[in-house]
Amino acid sequence: MEVERDQNSSLRSETIPIVDLSDLDEGFVSRAVVKASQEWGIFHVVNHGISTDLIRRLKEVGTQFFDLPETEKKAVAKPDNSEDYEGYTRNLQHTEGRVWADNIFHRIWPPSCINFNYWPKNPPQFREVTEEYTKETKELSERLLRVLSEGLGLPYDALKEGLGGEKTEYVMRINNFPPNAQPDANLGLPEHTDVITMALIVTNEVPGLQIFKDDHWFDVQYIPNAITVTIGDQILRLSNGKYKNVMHRVTVDKKKQRMSWPIFVDANPDVVLGPLPELISGDNPSMFKPIICKDFKYRRLLRLPLD
Question: Membrane-crossing residues (predicted)?
């Protein structure tokens, strides 16, 4: 979906839902997560149980990696002939309409799919911090999936099992958006919905994430130590459209470096993505054709018809 760029159509950022996961009223928390996922496809979670020190260390090692000389970063570069996404890539061009970012992608769960060749060895603490953060974000994502499953009137493990159970994949992406002398000419990331299940995102203090809602783009505010959750295409399909996939993009700053650390929750490549059978009835027909996940992602990548 192509959306016209309008840098001046920013609405109030405070409207994005904020969910306090420490609230003792679990029913209230669950309703807030479900409502935000139905109406927005994005929300912030605070008091989520992941320590501020761990988030600080995650940002520290990621920043240190991107501060390395280009020759060192290329030690974990994505091979030129690779059809996969893992590895370090760089795309800093002032060409009108081109993206302005470098990033590193690598799988972090399950252990059977990890290739440590794409994990930086410098800084030395990178692996330790990433493995600790993986454990914490996996627990948080599974808590959210339980809430969203029950919000569909299904057993708590319905969405997790629909994604592949313990074979569900987790991917870390660290995005680096350096200062850009021509910020209106380039986006850090173009407008898109995520092809995955959900993303759990932390950022530095520089704004840039924008979402499209009610025919307007508007800014996502920075909340220290909050995690921003975005709903992707896979939950849209599994929920038969009940939960919304959010259109979003990233702008760049003229003077400041922006960084983000999304963890992507991704269905196992071999599962069949389609509305969960319990949701389909004569009164609620299927909105999407079942499709194997790897085929779904391939067709999305090439913008081929799906349904």
Answer: none
